[in-house]
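By way of example, what follows is a protein record of this kind.
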Amino acid sequence: MIPFDEIGSRYDEAFTSRGAEFASAQPPVGTHDERCTTRPQSCEAVAMDQRISLVTLGVGDLARAREFYEALGWAGAQQPDDEVCFFQAGGMVFGLWTALGGHGAPGIELAHNVRSPEEVGEVLTEALRAGGTIVRPAGQAEWGGTSGAFADPDGYVWEVAHNPGWTVGEDGAVRI
């Protein structure tokens, strides 16, 4: 298992060099309250649905972690490479990833999948407007989709992604 402080330093190295780029970014004019009435349904500017698409745990040994969950009765894992695997978990996805420390918060990352590549940037903009910090801007991901990430005011990292191989239903359920 990778020690927590080593993961933290990898995270710092990966994002400190990009920090100046985001520190100067200004949120669009107007606060959430100025743009929305008290009823969320009337707030067209809010791009992020109230749901979690994916919870990913950072693991030190993918084979061991996968075997553990399979021994609990979890089945149907999809493993595109030797770093990550995904289990369908009802209407969301549960992931195990050995490289988590380089992409987000050490140990755990939340994800919000969207229906189009353009929505990735829209959700990141909304997070910035709401007081979050852009950790990784929207861009082409090495796995073929579009991805970006923000941190909430307490530092929890959310990946926002469009994966062309996954379906996001009308109810927000994600299918791998």
